[in-house]
Design goal:
mainly alpha; Arc Repressor Mutant, subunit A; two-stranded antiparallel ribbon; 2 strands; globular
């Protein structure tokens, strides 16, 4: 019995990757031109805006970004004075990151732009479809975390 062929255009991981790449590319240029930010820099700012005093490793974990990409973004944001690094109060061996006034200003400028893009992207969906999409993404994220990386079985 022949194995079923993998049709890439129907393969969920591929479709999610294509969508992610298209969306990221569409907004990356605007982030760069309007705010002098890369996508990883924006993600770091956005996480720290909601959860200050995280380490770079914690930011990487929350964003599911590669530690090297987070490290580069943190370096750039420190250099541009949009972030500051401090020693954690509870553990002096651990450094934490926080937005500076300049970082908060950039975040305040990017957030409405990002939300407007999201509204435009979701516009063809009904409220029910948006809720269903949100639920489906939550379920898939939980399942992906549960099953972990593909291993030989």
């Amino acid at each position: 019995m022949p194995k079923p062929a993998l049709l890439l255009e129907n393969f969920l991981p591929y479709r999610l990757s294509v969508l992610t790449n298209l969306v990221s590319t569409a907004i990356a240029g605007a982030y760069r031109e309007r705010f002098a930010l890369s996508i990883p820099e924006w993600r770091v700012l956005a996480v720290l805006a909601n959860s200050p005093d995280l380490s770079a490793a914690e930011v990487a974990q929350r964003t599911a970004m590669d530690k090297v990409a987070v490290s580069r973004a943190v370096r750039a944001l420190l250099k541009s004075a949009r972030l500051e690094r401090r020693m954690a109060h509870a553990d002096r061996r651990r450094s934490v990151l926080r937005l500076t006034t300049a970082g908060r200003q950039v975040h305040s400028g990017v957030a409405p732009f990002a939300l407007a893009y999201e509204r435009a992207l979701l516009q063809p969906l009904s409220r029910a479809e948006r809720r269903a999409l949100g639920r489906a993404l939550d379920i898939l994220l939980g399942r992906a975390l549960q099953i972990g990386p593909l291993t030989k079985r």
